[in-house]
Amino acid sequence: MQETLDFIKNEIKDFKPELAIVLGSGLGAFCEGLEGITIPYSKIPGFGSSSVKGHKGELLFANVCGKKTVIMQGRFHFYEGYSLSQNTLPIKVFKKLGVNKIILTNAAGSLREDMPPGSIMLIEDHINFMGSNPLIGVNDDTLGTRFPDMNEVYSKRLRAIVENCANKMGIELKHGVYSALTGPSYETPAEVRMLAKLGASATGMSTVPEAIVAKYCSIEVLGVSLITNYAAGLSKVAPNHREVVEMGKIAGEKLSKLLKESIKEF
Ligand code: HPA
To answer: Which CATH superfamily is domain 2-263 in?
Structure first.
């Protein structure tokens, strides 16, 4: 981590981000019109290279609505073969750079009929179905404690700000529990029924490890799912990546506007 940190610090000089944003599939539009310092992941020691279509694979350090921000355009997924500790290295690096708030976004499948594609869901809590935990291994006491509490991973304060902005902008928000499986195969209809019965509203293949690490190192988390499709069995159309990216782009514009308004009050 020290090598990664030193490299980034040298690139950004005295830019000190306080906010981090991780953009999920199709959400790249958020960065349009933003100017700042760009660093491709391929240049950063310790970072992977994001291989998923719809993910750009670079860090952007920029001012976003008055906040010094680092934006991850694309993330490292467990299903790409990265370990959960590689997957969450950026979060730890951001903490060391001074970040104290993070927005985690993702594309997700809906587990509820009343939450159609195009919906924006504020994540209230999560269920980790990845079968592993990013904090397994030697604990770095400078970041957090060995057995971190996972109450209120997703900040009530940040959610209230976003809800308030959404009300003012006439944007409808859904709320729910996000469940993460490893992927890359989509869920079976039986798995989808199970997840819904267990209390989840949406399902995806990311975000949970990053949220765990952020909470562990005392970063305030906002989690937002862009609902791109009905999960398997809830619709005649089978989930597919093209649909995910396309719906991400359409609903992503609405989400980008909402986040930019909200960030002013973070
Ligand atoms: N399942 C899992 N991950 C997803 C989905 C889905 O239906 N849609 C977008 N990401």
So the answer is: Nucleoside phosphorylase domain (3.40.50.1580)
Q: How far is CA 165 from CA 7, 83, 124, 227, 254, in A?
A: 37, 36, 17, 19, 12
Distance 146 CA to ligand 1 centre (A): 31
* Residue appearing with tokens 């791109």: 228
115, 205, 234, best to mutate for ligand 1 pocket (most atoms within 8 Å of CB):
205
- Domain definitions of the chain by residue range: 2-263
Query: Which listed residue (62, 121, 196, 205) is catalytic?
Result: 205
Is pLDDT of 204 > 90?
yes
Q: 59 is written with which tokens? A: 């860090």
HEC sequence for 158-214: HHHHHHHHHHHHCCCCEEEEEEECCCCCCCCHHHHHHHHHCCCCEEECCCHHHHHHH
Active site residue 167: no
Please identify which of the residues 80, 124, 243, 246 carries the catalytic annotation: 80
Pick from 25, 75, 186 the residue to mutate for probing ligand 1's pocket: most ligand atoms within 8 Å of its CB. 186
Output the pLDDT for position 53. Answer: 66
> Would you say residue 111 has pLDDT above 70?
yes
